[in-house]
Amino acid sequence: MPDLPLDQIQGLVLRGYTHPRARHFMINIPNAAAGKKFVAAVTPMITTAKPWGVKPRTCYNIAFTKDGLHALGIDVPNAGLVPQFVEGAIVRGGSQVGPSSDLGDHGASAPTNWILGLGTGDVHIILSLFAVDTEARDRGTDIVNSTMASAGVQPRGHQDSDDVLGDSRIHYGYHDGISQPNIDGAPPRKNPDDQPVVSTGEFVLGYNAEGGLLRPGPSFDPANGTYSAFRILKQDVDAFFEYLNAAAALYDLTPEAVQAKFCGRWADGTPLVLSPETPDPSASLNNFNYIPNDKPARSCPIASHIRRSQRRNEDNQQHRLLRRAAPYGPPYVPKDGLERGLTGHFICSSLEMQYEFIMTQWVNGSTVTGLSRDPLLGAIDDANPPRFQLYWKGDKKSLEGFGRFTTTRGGAYCYLPSIAGLQTLSA
After folding, report:
1. What's the rounded Cα separation, in Å, for the pair 378 and 223?
2. 118 pLDDT exceeds 80?
3. What pLDDT shows up at residue 99?
4. CA distance from start to end of the chain
5. Which of 119, 155, 139, 3 is nearest to 59 (CA)?
6. Is the dihedral of CA 106, 112, 115, 121 positive or negative?
7. DSSP 8-class letter at 230
8. Distances (CA, A) of 158 to 137, 161, 235, 347, 385
9. pLDDT of 368
10. Which pLDDT does position 316 carry in this prediction?
11. Are residues 220 and 230 in contact, defined by beta-carbon separation less than 8 angstroms?
12. pLDDT given for residue 101 in this prediction
């Protein structure tokens, strides 16, 4: 186990804050001097991964787009940054359209439709504020606004997220954030899953990844930084619950059963592998496996969301993500016209082997033979019509007739520097 310098690694990477309020600031750097002044002022505020004595009321983390690093004077194409980051989310998401290489960012999800300047290259920094309550978030916002004004950088708006539903639930009704990787050298998690510990280098640059492969950081930050895919994902909650009711009536199911089969868990988090016909509050939410427990997929459909995005006991160790995301929008009220969704960072050291692999091969790919895309996250459209197979009380059913429930409202490929890297960027 590596002796990680926790005071050098941004806390968002190795810690789940569990702060219920967040605000992600989109910031533009008008010139290098203003950018460096802002980074210098913010660096002492950044929350690291070192243990807390007392839980802070606010946490701050900072991430840069390729355009942001360029604005600070970094020679981005020649700095040792991965090619996917150098191209950026606008290019990657907007161009990879096809049955085996689809990130899903087309149609209504295309970068031309993204909000807060994320589709234009105008966002250089994403500064994330996490707070224990709205008062702490408002106070933190005052500090961020003052720091931006003093340095001369320019705000481009912000995106909030709020755990307004309690129990870490998302607007589709599911208990979320249950399964996260156990990282070699990281602080222990309160609720670890039963999967093997993942090599440090899968999430922190400068260390060995799976197979002993060293993943170095860029030239200006050789170790302790990492990458993320920042996403704002709109959820069509009306369409989702309408389909649950319609499918239940059409296929002789219950809405709760359709909801569970789509995800691979009951709404309370109970894995279908452990309890296929009813939620079980006594079941372990993390300690279950598809093989050998449910190899024929009679309990948990092979195309369900969690089975596609985390293949337990299969080729999975090189394709894990750290999810630091939470809902946005108010609690669901049918037909109120308000937008709801999920926003946050999906952290990894290889955008290609982790985030993009999961999206192109498992969520939107054709590796699940004969079945359509991920029912919750997939880019389902006329060119990719849905077909979802499940078993219910011994009967095989094939659900059709649903559309795309989740669309992209914004995205960015980000670099999260180490503290030493931030000091270099501000120098």
Report:
1. 34
2. yes
3. 42
4. 33
5. 139
6. positive
7. E
8. 12, 10, 19, 20, 34
9. 56
10. 74
11. no
12. 59
- Confidence at residue 95, expressed as pLDDT on a 0 to 100 scale: 62
Beta bridge partners of 61: 128
Mean pLDDT of the chain: 92
Q: Quote the Cα angle for 346-351-352, to 5°.
A: 140
Neighbours of 166 (CB within 10 A): 9
Average pLDDT over residues 213-241: 97
Would the pLDDT of 313 be above 90? no
Place of tokens 């912000």: 158
Rounded Cα distance between 264 and 312, Å, is: 12
Give, as one character, the DSSP assignment of residue 116: T
What's the rounded mean pLDDT across residues 126-151? 98
> How many alpha carbons fall within 13 Å on the CB side of residue 45?
20
Could you say which DSSP state residue 290 is in? S
Number of other CB atoms surrounding residue 322 within 10 Å: 24
Question: Which of 236, 266, 238, 237 has its CA nearest to residue 254?
Answer: 266
What's the average model confidence in pLDDT over 226-230?
Answer: 98
Q: For residue range 41-95, what is the model confidence (pLDDT) as tens digits?
A: 999 999 999 999 899 999 999 999 999 999 999 999 999 999 999 999 999 986 6
Element (H or E) spanning 148, and its range?
helix 134-151
CA 158 – CA 111 distance, rounded (Å) = 17
Residue 294's φ and ψ, nearest 5 degrees, are: -145, 50
Reference 254, options 282, 231, 277; nearest CA is 277
The residue with tokens 């960072």 is 345
| Sequence-ordered list of residues with C-beta below 8 angstroms from that of 416, at least 6 positions apart, any chain | 10, 12, 13, 61, 62, 63, 64, 225, 226, 227, 228, 347
Domain residue extents for the chain? 11-233+411-426
Largest Cα–Cα distance in the chain?
Answer: 66
DSSP secondary structure string for all residues of 72-111: TT--GGGTT--HHHHH-HHHHHHH--STTS--S--GGGSG
Give bridge partners of residue 391 from the DSSP assignment. Answer: 396
Q: Are 405 and 22 in contact (CB under 8 A)?
A: no
User: Coil, helix or strand for 397?
Assistant: strand
Return all residues near 165 (Cβ < 8 A) that are at least 6 apart: 171, 327, 331
Whole-angstrom CA distances from 372 to 237, 304, 339, 398 are 20, 10, 26, 11
pLDDT category of residue 100 using cuts at 50, 70 and 90? very low
Element spanning 406, H or E: strand 406-416
